[in-house]
Specification:
Layout (H helix, E strand, L loop, with lengths): L4 H11 L1 H5 L3 E5 L4 E6 L13 H23 L3 E12 L6 E6 L3 H13 L3 E10 L5 E13 L1
Antiparallel strand pairs: 1-2, 2-4, 3-6, 4-5, 5-6
Protein backbone atom coordinates (compact mmCIF):
# COMPACT_ATOMS: atom_id res chain seq x y z
CA UNK A 1 0.00 0.00 0.00
CA UNK A 2 1.50 3.32 -1.10
CA UNK A 3 0.68 6.48 0.79
CA UNK A 4 -1.25 9.01 -1.25
CA UNK A 5 -3.15 12.24 -0.68
CA UNK A 6 -6.49 10.55 -0.07
CA UNK A 7 -5.13 7.95 2.39
CA UNK A 8 -3.23 10.60 4.34
CA UNK A 9 -6.26 12.89 4.60
CA UNK A 10 -8.37 9.95 5.82
CA UNK A 11 -5.63 9.13 8.34
CA UNK A 12 -5.75 12.75 9.52
CA UNK A 13 -9.50 12.63 10.04
CA UNK A 14 -9.33 9.37 12.02
CA UNK A 15 -6.06 9.69 13.94
CA UNK A 16 -5.42 13.45 14.24
CA UNK A 17 -8.90 14.97 14.32
CA UNK A 18 -7.72 18.31 15.72
CA UNK A 19 -5.65 18.88 12.57
CA UNK A 20 -8.57 17.78 10.39
CA UNK A 21 -11.01 20.13 12.14
CA UNK A 22 -8.56 23.02 11.78
CA UNK A 23 -8.45 22.46 8.01
CA UNK A 24 -5.01 20.87 7.57
CA UNK A 25 -4.98 18.86 4.32
CA UNK A 26 -2.37 16.99 2.30
CA UNK A 27 -2.29 18.39 -1.24
CA UNK A 28 0.56 16.40 -2.75
CA UNK A 29 2.97 13.66 -1.76
CA UNK A 30 5.73 12.21 -3.90
CA UNK A 31 8.87 10.18 -3.23
CA UNK A 32 10.84 13.02 -1.64
CA UNK A 33 8.42 15.95 -1.40
CA UNK A 34 5.19 16.77 0.37
CA UNK A 35 2.82 19.75 0.29
CA UNK A 36 0.23 20.38 3.01
CA UNK A 37 -2.03 23.42 3.18
CA UNK A 38 -4.36 25.09 5.61
CA UNK A 39 -6.59 28.12 5.13
CA UNK A 40 -6.90 30.77 7.82
CA UNK A 41 -10.42 30.61 9.27
CA UNK A 42 -12.20 31.52 12.48
CA UNK A 43 -11.60 28.07 14.00
CA UNK A 44 -7.82 28.14 13.57
CA UNK A 45 -7.01 31.78 14.22
CA UNK A 46 -5.18 33.43 17.09
CA UNK A 47 -6.33 36.65 18.82
CA UNK A 48 -4.40 38.66 16.21
CA UNK A 49 -6.57 37.33 13.36
CA UNK A 50 -3.91 35.18 11.76
CA UNK A 51 -3.25 31.46 11.66
CA UNK A 52 -2.48 30.10 15.14
CA UNK A 53 1.12 28.91 15.42
CA UNK A 54 0.10 25.42 16.58
CA UNK A 55 -2.00 24.93 13.44
CA UNK A 56 0.99 25.95 11.34
CA UNK A 57 3.10 23.46 13.29
CA UNK A 58 0.59 20.65 12.63
CA UNK A 59 0.69 21.34 8.89
CA UNK A 60 4.47 21.67 8.81
CA UNK A 61 5.03 18.51 10.84
CA UNK A 62 2.72 16.58 8.55
CA UNK A 63 4.86 17.44 5.50
CA UNK A 64 7.86 15.81 7.16
CA UNK A 65 6.02 13.02 8.99
CA UNK A 66 4.16 11.85 5.91
CA UNK A 67 7.48 11.42 4.10
CA UNK A 68 8.94 9.46 7.03
CA UNK A 69 5.82 7.26 7.20
CA UNK A 70 5.99 6.62 3.46
CA UNK A 71 9.67 5.64 3.52
CA UNK A 72 9.13 3.35 6.50
CA UNK A 73 6.20 1.73 4.70
CA UNK A 74 8.36 1.20 1.58
CA UNK A 75 11.02 -0.55 3.67
CA UNK A 76 8.53 -3.28 4.69
CA UNK A 77 10.20 -3.33 8.11
CA UNK A 78 8.98 -2.41 11.59
CA UNK A 79 10.49 0.97 12.40
CA UNK A 80 9.32 3.42 15.04
CA UNK A 81 9.28 7.17 14.47
CA UNK A 82 9.03 10.12 16.83
CA UNK A 83 9.69 13.85 16.82
CA UNK A 84 12.50 14.59 19.30
CA UNK A 85 12.52 18.37 18.96
CA UNK A 86 11.54 21.19 16.67
CA UNK A 87 12.40 24.78 15.85
CA UNK A 88 10.26 27.44 14.24
CA UNK A 89 10.80 30.89 12.78
CA UNK A 90 7.86 33.10 11.86
CA UNK A 91 8.60 35.73 9.23
CA UNK A 92 5.20 37.15 8.28
CA UNK A 93 1.62 37.15 9.55
CA UNK A 94 -0.09 33.99 8.23
CA UNK A 95 -3.42 34.83 6.62
CA UNK A 96 -5.22 33.31 3.64
CA UNK A 97 -4.14 29.90 2.40
CA UNK A 98 -0.76 28.77 3.67
CA UNK A 99 1.04 25.90 1.95
CA UNK A 100 3.87 24.06 3.67
CA UNK A 101 6.50 22.33 1.56
CA UNK A 102 9.11 19.74 2.52
CA UNK A 103 11.71 18.57 0.02
CA UNK A 104 13.82 16.45 2.40
CA UNK A 105 12.54 12.94 1.73
CA UNK A 106 15.95 11.91 0.40
CA UNK A 107 17.41 12.29 3.91
CA UNK A 108 15.24 9.49 5.29
CA UNK A 109 16.68 6.72 3.11
CA UNK A 110 20.14 6.83 4.71
CA UNK A 111 18.71 6.96 8.25
CA UNK A 112 16.51 3.93 7.58
CA UNK A 113 19.41 2.04 6.07
CA UNK A 114 21.57 2.78 9.13
CA UNK A 115 18.95 1.80 11.71
CA UNK A 116 18.25 -1.45 9.87
CA UNK A 117 21.92 -2.37 9.56
CA UNK A 118 23.04 -1.33 13.07
CA UNK A 119 19.85 -1.66 15.11
CA UNK A 120 20.62 1.74 16.63
CA UNK A 121 18.29 4.70 16.56
CA UNK A 122 18.98 7.43 14.04
CA UNK A 123 18.05 11.11 13.95
CA UNK A 124 17.56 13.48 11.08
CA UNK A 125 16.44 17.09 10.72
CA UNK A 126 13.81 17.95 8.11
CA UNK A 127 12.64 21.42 7.06
CA UNK A 128 9.17 22.62 6.10
CA UNK A 129 8.57 26.10 4.70
CA UNK A 130 5.22 27.89 4.81
CA UNK A 131 4.29 30.09 1.85
CA UNK A 132 1.22 32.33 1.54
CA UNK A 133 -1.01 32.98 -1.51
CA UNK A 134 1.29 35.70 -2.81
CA UNK A 135 4.41 33.51 -2.62
CA UNK A 136 5.82 35.08 0.53
CA UNK A 137 7.43 32.93 3.21
CA UNK A 138 5.48 33.09 6.48
CA UNK A 139 7.30 30.45 8.55
CA UNK A 140 10.05 27.86 8.56
CA UNK A 141 9.82 24.79 10.77
CA UNK A 142 12.51 22.21 11.40
CA UNK A 143 11.75 18.85 12.98
CA UNK A 144 14.24 16.35 14.37
CA UNK A 145 12.86 12.89 13.71
CA UNK A 146 14.15 9.80 15.48
CA UNK A 147 13.71 6.42 13.86
CA UNK A 148 14.62 3.00 15.22
CA UNK A 149 14.22 -0.55 13.95
CA UNK A 150 11.97 -2.58 16.22
Amino acid sequence: MTLNRSKLNKFLMLKIPSAWLCGVRVDEIEENTCKVSVKHKWINQNPFKSLYFAVQAMAAELTTGALVMGKIQQSNRKISMLVAQNRAKFTKKATGKISFYCYDGHLIDEAIEKTLSTGEGQTLWMKSTGINDTGEQVAVFEFEWTIKAK
